[in-house]
Amino acid sequence: MKKILCFLVFSTFGLSFAYAQKSKNHLKISGGAEITTGIFKQGFNTGFGIYITDYYSVIEGGSILLSTGIASWKGNNHSGKAGLVLTRLGFRQFVGAGFYLQGDGGFGIGLENFSGRTRFSYGGGPGYLFASKNGSGFDISARVNRYGYRTWFGVAAGYQFKL
């Protein structure tokens, strides 16, 4: 199952890069804090995440997205470490000058303490892109994420490039 999912992810990225010549493609690299909440907070501290996201414009102000990245947390007391490899497909819609809403869903593969479990994962939230005329620019975002019974908030900053 994991091999099939990885094949689909890499195929989608390959197709995205192939269509980059049409000037509708942007790539964002971001990183930030992953703040645990609820029952998840009882076992783990605030962690970090690093993500790469490909945006393909399909309508005015709207883009299909494919995102992959890794999130990691250090445990409280004897919980050890835990992490996730997240791959998601979603949509971003600009609702004002630079302001957007984004939502996505996909799968997460647990690392270390999460024992390699593959589960459905989803998230979403607002962001702001300080874009130049060609769509490149500095980006900040906040989002709520879910994987199994674990919920966390992500606060990230990154840079979006035009491909």
Structure summarized in a few sentences:
With 163 residues, the chain is mainly beta. Helices cover 13% and strands 64% of the residues.
What does this structure look like?
- The chain is mainly beta.
- It contains two helices and eight strands; from the N terminus they run αβαβββββββ.
- The chain has helices at residues 2-18, 39-43; strands spanning 25-37, 47-59, 62-74, 81-94, 99-112, 118-131, 137-147, 150-162.
- Strands 1-2-3-4-5-6-7-8 form an eight-stranded antiparallel barrel.
- β2 and β3 form a beta hairpin.
- The longest helix is centred in the N-terminal third of the chain and has 17 residues, at 2-18.
- The radius of gyration is 16 Å and the shape is elongated.
- The model has no long low-confidence stretch (mean pLDDT 86).
Radius of gyration: 16 Å
Q: How are the strands of the biggest sheet laid out side by side?
A: 1-2-3-4-5-6-7-8
Task: List the uncertain runs.
Answer: none
Q: How many beta-strand runs?
A: 8
Biggest sheet, in brief?
Answer: 8 strands, antiparallel, barrel
Helix content: 10-25%
Classification by helices and strands: mainly beta
Overall mean confidence score, pLDDT: 86
Spatial gap, N to C terminus: 31 Å
Strand content: over 45%
- Could you state the order of secondary-structure elements as H and E? HEHEEEEEEE
